[in-house]
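To: structure desk
From: M.T.
Subject: fold request, one chain
Message: Could you run this one when you get a chance? Sequence is below, nothing fancy, just the single chain.
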Amino acid sequence: MGRASSFARVLDADAPALTSRPGVGRLFVGQRKVRLGDARPSGELRLDALIRYSQDVSNDDTADARLPDDLAWVVRRTTVDVISAAMFGEELEIVTFCSGVGGRWAERRLEVSGSSGARYEVATLWIHLDTTTGRPRTLGRDFLDLYGEAAQGRKVTARLTQGGPAESAARRPWPLRLVDFDVFNHMNNAAYWVAVEERLPTWPASWSSGSRFTIEYRAGVRPGDQVEVAEEVSSDRVDLWWMVGGSQVAASVRVDRLAPQWYAKAR
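Reply: Done. Structure tokens follow.
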């Protein structure tokens, strides 16, 4: 299957289905405003800021639910459909719900809509961890009783699908900053998207709207790591990899253009 049909492949198989808001089950609603420090020079909301909004509202939901170990979750994969970008000063409503479960993980959907017409669709796969061992832990009855109804029996997989870069992929050093790391001494999920923002202006056409971004987190980046970003670009697809020590994939992202007929319908 050639690159020209890559987005159809994404929708049909490789990426998680971005399910619609259910008519039953738990919904949690948060609000954010696009502030000066979250916008590009063009005024559009940056992707790293969008991811920060998404993870903050997700954490607010689990804290509000009063489940034990509400921070015992790590992100495995996030898919973002950018339908229409938010602008500086725009008020955003973020609605989140559980859209699928597995044995030791769950998928969270977030619908982001703006007062001036912005729209993003986000799906994030979170792995539930045992806080003592650090290993994945089976979802408890308390979680399933609260979030399971909205998932409506939908099962999701934690399988990763993105491979590593080709030998010919362009590479450049990626310097780490103190502000990239969180209280767990891990590079925060949102910090990876800074590299996407840095490269976005160099890609063909306008990729800021009408695109799907899918990031997979693997080994992650720690303070002191030597990191390079590898990149492959074609007319309708971009791949980035965060490489540690030259050969280990810490994370990767694939960007596809949304199919025009799907994009028109979604708007």
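Reply (cont.): The chain has one domain: 3-266. Let me know if you need anything else for the meeting.
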